[in-house]
Amino acid sequence: MSNKTAKLLSLLDGQPVIPVIKIADVKDAVPLARALARGGLPAIEITLRTDAALDSIRRVAAEVEEAVVGAGTILNARQFDEAAKAGSRFIVSPGLTREVIAAASGSDVPLLPGVITPGEIMAAAEAGLDFLKFFPAEQAGGAAFLKSLASPFGGIHFCPTGGIGANNAKDYLGLPNVICVGGSWVAPDEMVKAGDWAGIEALAREASKLRKK
Ligand SMILES: O=C(O)C(=O)C[C@H](O)[C@H](O)COP(=O)(O)O
Questions:
Q1: Does the keyword Cell membrane apply (predicted)?
Q2: What predicted TM-score, i.e. pTM, was given to this entire model?
Q3: 48 - beta bridge partners?
Q4: Is residue 45 annotated as part of the catalytic site, yes or no?
Q5: Active-site hit among 7, 22, 27, 45
Q6: How many Cβ atoms sit within 10 Å of the Cβ of residue 65?
């Protein structure tokens, strides 16, 4: 295992589900991160899909001591650097490019890059990356596909994300090459918009019980 993977795993601290969050209004960032942490999911991924994302990361990093804030949907080196400067403790990308790999290798902030195919996994391994996001998990072949990657790629572990919910998370968490899953189901847009923090805390609490066997 690489040093950066060890660092990322220690940040995630056995958490089975990483909430993937989209924040439209920066004022929601702190109460949302607090609700998820109260529910047992302190490590969260705020996606750079909205204008409020970087400010949200800054706020959570500064104000929510109990949270471990990461950035998601990082598509290039500029976004990697901005997200790292904003205080992201880890960086998630839907894919794997030379540019993002280079940005990560010049930074202390660990990268969780997205892959699907054996060739992409081999390219990641060549870059020293051994903990990878499997995205989009359900659409690309699901737990059966991921299971079949375990034999040829014994040293590689995954965080599948995409189409995963309370109903199927266990299918993934039961696999030997899966460490955690990612998903937006614990912080649905409508509950965030409605400020339903108690509801989100309850969803997080359920998800946090999905411990790996
Ligand atoms: O853009 C990224 O970097 C991502 O992380 C993609 C997200 O992981 C998925 O969009 C979450 O998938 P759902 O749980 O199906 O909503």
A1: no
A2: 0.96
A3: none
A4: yes
A5: 45
A6: 10
